[in-house]
Amino acid sequence: MTFAELIDAAEADGAAALREILRLARAASPEADEGVSYGVAALLHQGQPLIGIGTNAKGYALFPFSGSVMSVVVDDLNGWRVTKGSVGFDGTKPLPSEVVERIIGLRLAEIAQRK
Questions:
Q1: What is the mean pLDDT of residues 78-90?
Q2: Percent of the chain, pLDDT > 90?
Q3: Where in the sequence is the domain holding 35, given as residue range(s)?
Q4: How far, in Å, CA of 60 to CA of 55, rounded?
């Protein structure tokens, strides 16, 4: 599923939350390509998965494709559904833009370090 398909299928609040995440990711990595990684819609930075969005029974999950990134931001995500590799959210409680920007920045740094 693409980001456009996710947004089209979402209710208004969910679509707004998804558009904001996509906007923040594109601002940080304008050259990122849209694709699929681990079965979810993803933006790929220099061929590496930057962030992904999947759907679940409770809404959506943001995947930074990095347990290290999640361990750094976990304290900023009290009140959201957090696992080692993702954070769950829905349209009624979108992720804070500052935290999404931090996740993206940390993931970009991680990708750059691997090059």
A1: 95
A2: 95
A3: 3-114
A4: 4
Rounded-to-integer distance, Cα 14 and Cα 16, Å: 5
Q: Within a 13 Å sphere around the CA of 95, how many CA atoms are in the beta-carbon half?
A: 31
**pTM, two decimal places:** 0.94
Query: What is the pLDDT averaged over residues 12-38?
Result: 96
Rg (CA), the chain: 13
Total of domains in the chain: 1
DSSP reduced 3-state for 87: strand
Euclidean distance between CA atoms 84 and 74, whole angstroms: 9
Domain containing 99 — which CATH number? Answer: 3.90.1150.200
